[in-house]
């Protein structure tokens, strides 16, 4: 070993220049070079090998030696291959066993320890509002980068996506027994993989960065049609300006009164509940029942990660609260199964359907510090994990809002006629709204020129949404149309969507209705009962026979009608072989007989 090699070997502890200055290399070069002699053990072992090989070849033969070498080589290849497979499987098992969310995960332990993703959200003013929401939104400077278990999993290369080659089976043939809407197969990732797919930062909001909301303690109605004390009375000019997308905007979005949404604003919520709703959550699930209109449905197939990290909120009014207390379903814990019950007082509308539109379309105002929300109507039961739903309909599709299209209708004019025929709302109000859209917004029937948009009519009972400024603006303007016209939100959906899409590059993931029916099960409203099943017979089955005919009534026999028979050569009285003689008798009808 030379002095140069020593210098290279120790270069990790100091530079070569420093070693030259210290005279280290000179000392090593001046030292004599040591040459080792081969040991006797090595010589003896090599001689034994030379003696052993001819001995084996002499008694075994060349062919057998070759076969032996091949067997040894095959064993080496097998051992090496199994070692490689075990190593890869251990790595994949280690990756799969990593828990993305833990009790000490910084995102859930403290709202202030938020990932870098919230830096853009707060700087863009996503959660800010005009005056009355600024105290609720988190104004957090961008923190230092935090490495979380989810980031470790996301940085690991994916070994394959099990839904990449998924193809949906064809629908049943037209002659099948089951008709009407039905669920179809959907490929969901496992919950761990779905959590790992969650984006580490919010989606970019096109054009719009800062969205604030109108605050007016004394709203005054300036026009003859539309508006309310809860949502304000925006003029037609203000309505049209709200569709002009700019970097900073202020729009009507409900809760025009009060210091903050839920506090003396109409749709009032207790202070303790408001403090809970202001907490940071990455994902929430929300629903509502007003007027004791539905039965609360408990979710199924919810993972442990979702049970720990995703809250389920159910908004009810005082009427529904009284019914739940009388039936002992609601106690002081305000928990009913999965659901955390939020009682709403001073509800703004007399129509329960309009009250239900407040949490459905304005969740971003009630929950100012939430990233993702899943809204389901009160009549629905969730049967798939929320993380899997978000991965399938938002993250996999690179979308920030998703809603299913109607299973049968895709044209607004057809939907309006169906609403009138079913008595969903006052026909004159529906006609006024459709005429306004036709006259002022150039609403036309759906046609192929709208592709890739596949429908103008949503099935609005489920909304999967990321809370960013552009999606918040969409639901605000959608609520304003519902507040101005009828509560049938299917009629105003396409107008709001198309006006925003004409201004910015943005779209909505309208998935098939059969996919929605895969992860929610629909129940009937309390006022609508299921058709009763056929009653089963109780006790022995009694078979009733008609009474016998009276003996006094003679049986009238109709005359025998004989068909002309060809003359045969057989003698009179002879028959064909194997043929018996039958006489055709037609009994009289019972219809003319009286019992």
From TrEMBL:
Start-end of Low complexity biased regions: 119-135
Biased composition (Basic residues): 564-585
Pfam families tied to this protein: TOD1_MUCI70 (PF04765)
Segments passing through the bilayer: 65-85
Keyword Isomerase: no
Keyword Transmembrane applies: yes
Lineage top rank: taxon: Eukaryota
Region of interest (Disordered), residue spans: 116-179, 560-595
Domain TOD1/MUCI70 glycosyltransferase-like: 211-525
Keywords, comma-separated and alphabetical: Membrane, Transmembrane, Transmembrane helix
InterPro entries, per the entry: TOD1_MUCI70, TOD1_MUCI70_glycTrfase_dom
Protein name: TOD1/MUCI70 glycosyltransferase-like domain-containing protein
Organism: Lithocarpus litseifolius
């Amino acid at each position: 070993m030379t002095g140069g090699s020593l210098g290279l070997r120790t270069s990790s502890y100091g530079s070569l220049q420093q070693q030259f200055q210290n005279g280290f290399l000179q000392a090593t070069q001046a030292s004599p070079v040591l040459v080792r002699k081969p040991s006797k053990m090595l010589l003896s072992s090599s001689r034994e090998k030379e003696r052993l090989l001819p001995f084996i070849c002499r008694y075994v033969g060349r062919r057998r030696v070759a076969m032996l070498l091949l067997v040894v080589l095959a064993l080496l290849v097998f051992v090496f291959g199994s070692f490689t497979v075990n190593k890869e499987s251990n790595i994949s098992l280690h990756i799969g066993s990593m828990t993305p969310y833990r009790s000490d995960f910084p995102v859930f332990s403290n709202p202030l320890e938020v990932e870098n993703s919230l830096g853009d959200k707060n700087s863009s003013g996503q959660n800010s509002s005009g005056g009355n929401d600024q105290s609720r939104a988190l104004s957090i400077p961008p923190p230092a980068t935090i490495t979380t278990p989810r980031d470790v999993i996301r940085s690991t290369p994916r070994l394959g996506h099990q839904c990449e080659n998924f193809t949906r089976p064809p629908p049943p043939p037209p002659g099948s027994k089951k008709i009407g809407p039905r669920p179809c197969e959907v490929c969901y990732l496992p919950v761990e993989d779905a959590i790992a797919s969650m984006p580490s930062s919010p989606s970019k909001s096109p054009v719009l960065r800062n969205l604030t909301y109108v605050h007016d303690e004394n709203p005054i109605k300036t026009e003859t049609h539309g508006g309310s004390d809860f949502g304000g009375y925006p003029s037609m000019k203000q309505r049209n300006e709200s569709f002009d997308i700019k970097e900073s905007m202020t729009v009507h979005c409900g809760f025009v009164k009060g210091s903050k949404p839920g506090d003396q604003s109409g749709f009032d919520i207790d202070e303790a509940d408001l403090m809970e709703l202001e907490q940071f959550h990455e994902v929430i699930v929300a629903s509502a029942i007003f007027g004791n209109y539905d039965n609360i449905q408990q979710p199924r197939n919810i993972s442990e990660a979702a049970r720990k990290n995703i809250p389920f909120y159910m908004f009810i009014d005082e009427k529904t609260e009284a019914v739940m207390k009388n039936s002992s379903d609601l106690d002081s814990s305000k928990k009913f199964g999965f659901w955390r019950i939020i009682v709403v007082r001073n509800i703004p509308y007399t129509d329960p359907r309009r009250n239900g539109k407040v949490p459905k379309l304005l969740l971003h105002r009630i929950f100012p510090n939430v990233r993702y929300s899943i809204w389901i109507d009160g009549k629905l039961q969730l049967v798939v994990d929320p993380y899997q739903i978000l991965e399938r309909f938002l993250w996999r599709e690179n979308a920030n809002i998703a809603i299913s299209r109607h299973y049968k209708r895709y044209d607004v004019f057809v939907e309006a006629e169906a609403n009138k025929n079913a008595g969903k709302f006052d026909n004159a109000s529906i006609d006024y709204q459709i005429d306004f859209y036709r006259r002022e917004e150039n609403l036309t029937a759906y046609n192929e020129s709208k592709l890739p948009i596949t429908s103008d009519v949503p099935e609005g009972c489920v909304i999967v949404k990321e809370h960013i400024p552009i999606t918040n603006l969409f639901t605000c303007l959608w609520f304003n149309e519902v507040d101005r016209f009828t509560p049938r939100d299917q009629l105003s959906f396409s107008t709001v969507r198309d006006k925003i899409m004409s201004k910015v590059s943005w779209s909505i993931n309208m998935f098939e209705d059969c996919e929605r029916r895969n992860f929610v099960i629909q129940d009937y409203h309390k006022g609508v009962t299921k058709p009763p099943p056929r009653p089963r017979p109780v006790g022995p089955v009694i078979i009733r026979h008609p009474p016998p005919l009276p003996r006094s009534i003679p049986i009238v026999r109709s005359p025998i009608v004989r068909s002309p028979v060809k003359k045969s050569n057989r003698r009179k009285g002879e028959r064909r072989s194997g043929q018996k003689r039958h006489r055709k008798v037609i009994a009289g009808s019972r219809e003319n007989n009286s019992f």
